[in-house]
């Protein structure tokens, strides 16, 4: 099995928005990894973040603060006639197609992540049990869930996490590499 890198939601968001400070570096890194034959994966959890953030920015489009990568703008216009639930679903489907076809990013979702485990007579999904076991890592819960997913996706060859979240991941980078054997690559705006 070839090695894979797990992409944090902020990398996918950066790919969608040329105005994002990490867009250029995310684009370059994703293309470079594709050329090397490294598999790029993400999770449905990351897609929740991406969809929510993308919908949130729709209201700020008129202000010119955000610009969507082509061909997103044409598609976004079609969303305006949908009810909120339909809009979310349609946007999610487009994002999945965009990252799969444009960047060869696989969305990995496995039933075993949600298998029910029992601890102290309490049933808990494997993913959340993993996050609880990793709660000693000093990071926000939303990022801890990405770490738990990446750690569980080692069975799919995941060996690293790529993120643009320097503030949260820099302090724990060595810990993840040493204790979980997960390499952490933090993209900065200064990278070339």
TrEMBL record:
<dbReference type="InterPro" id="IPR029060">
    <property type="entry name" value="PIN-like_dom_sf"/>
</dbReference>
<protein>
    <submittedName>
        <fullName>Uncharacterized protein</fullName>
    </submittedName>
</protein>
């Amino acid at each position: 099995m070839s090695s894979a890198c797990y992409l944090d939601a902020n990398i996918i968001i950066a790919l969608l928005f040329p105005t994002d400070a990490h867009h250029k570096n995310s684009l370059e890194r994703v293309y470079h990894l594709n050329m090397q034959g490294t598999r790029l994966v993400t999770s449905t959890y990351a897609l929740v973040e991406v969809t929510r953030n993308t919908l949130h920015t729709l209201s700020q489009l008129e202000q010119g603060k955000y610009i969507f990568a082509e061909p997103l703008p044409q598609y976004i216009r079609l969303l305006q006639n949908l009810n909120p639930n339909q809009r979310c679903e349609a946007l999610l489907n487009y994002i999945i197609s965009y990252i799969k076809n444009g960047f060869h990013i696989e969305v990995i979702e496995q039933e075993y992540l949600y298998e029910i485990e029992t601890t102290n007579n309490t049933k808990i999904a494997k993913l959340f049990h993993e996050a609880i076991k990793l709660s000693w890592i000093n990071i926000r819960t939303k990022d801890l869930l990405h770490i738990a997913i990446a750690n569980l996706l080692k069975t799919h060859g995941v060996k690293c996490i790529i993120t643009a979240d320097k503030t949260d991941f820099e302090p724990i980078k060595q810990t993840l590499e040493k204790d979980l054997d997960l390499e952490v690559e933090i993209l900065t705006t200064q990278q070339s």
